[in-house]
Write a structure and sequence with these properties.
- The chain has helices spanning about 1-55, 55-65, 65-85, 90-115, 120-140, 150-170, 175-205, 210-240.
- With about 240 residues, it is mainly α.
- The chain has one domain (about 1-240).
- Helix 5 runs parallel beside helix 7.
- The N and C termini lie far apart (about 85 Å).
- The relative contact order is 0.14.
Length: about 240
């Protein structure tokens, strides 16, 4: 009887181990799609900025018409809100195209920032961003610690820092305050990178197979936003002005 129990327990454990391994491989495959889409989005952003910087006419048109520049910010915001709210009703292809459109528009809105800093400092900051983002994404993927509470705290902190940023822009105009705000943003998006990675991993494991393309798109968008925001605020801290 004991031998039978041992054999049964061994069979169950082996089956569970096999199922767990299959799930891990499945999730890893979906996560590769997430990071692949995110990387393609970043490449589109970089290519868009490069093309704008290479065209004096296009650059002058953008810089001389602030209403277009700020209008693009609202388009970006609208795309994120629409994707988040309607992702279940959109086809995978449409959701992907909206994400890539967002990436292109971000390349346009970031271009004036690249005029402020030297190419060397931009490249250095990008390397720092990539290393930091990669380390935190790996941590979020492999850690067994539940980051849910950390994510909630970071979202509350993000709202508070955004309010400080608005007040500084509209009223204080303090360079020192802006540096402190950028440092706070860096701290927040470093943490959100790990939190988002863990949340996306869980979504990949739990989502219906028919939804995985959409999950990959939303995951790519979340991580893309983490990377871009981390890069922008690190650039404001470490970037060297062209002047």
């Amino acid at each position: 009887m004991d031998n039978w129990n041992n054999m049964t327990n061994g069979y169950v454990s082996a089956a569970q181990a096999e199922n767990e391994l299959t799930l891990q491989r499945y999730v890893a495959g979906v996560m590769r799609k997430v990071f692949g889409k995110m990387t393609l989005g970043l490449l589109l952003t970089a290519l868009t900025s490069f093309l704008l910087l290479s065209s004096n006419a296009a650059l002058s048109f953008l810089v001389s018409r602030p209403i277009i520049y700020f209008g693009l910010f609202f388009v970006e915001l609208g795309l994120v809100i629409y994707l988040s709210a309607r992702i279940e009703r959109l086809s995978t292809q449409v959701a992907s195209m909206m994400f890539y459109l967002y990436s292109i528009i971000t390349g346009i809105t970031l271009t004036p920032l690249f005029l402020v800093y030297t190419g060397a400092s931009i490249a250095t900051t990008f390397a720092i961003t990539a290393g930091t983002f990669g380390a935190m994404a790996i941590f979020g993927y492999v850690t067994r610690q539940d980051l849910t509470k950390i994510g909630s705290f970071l979202f509350m902190a993000l709202i508070g820092v955004l309010l400080c940023w608005v007040v500084n822009i509209l009223l204080l105009h303090s360079g020192t305050m802006m540096m402190l705000i950028s440092a706070a943003f860096v701290f927040i998006f470093v943490g959100l990178t790990a939190w988002d990675t863990q949340m996306i991993k869980r979504m990949c494991a739990q989502a219906d197979p028919s939804m995985l393309g959409k999950v990959a798109t939303m995951g790519a968008l979340s991580l893309y936003l983490d990377f871009i925001n981390l890069f922008v605020h690190l650039l404001r801290i470490f970037g060297v002005s062209r002047d």
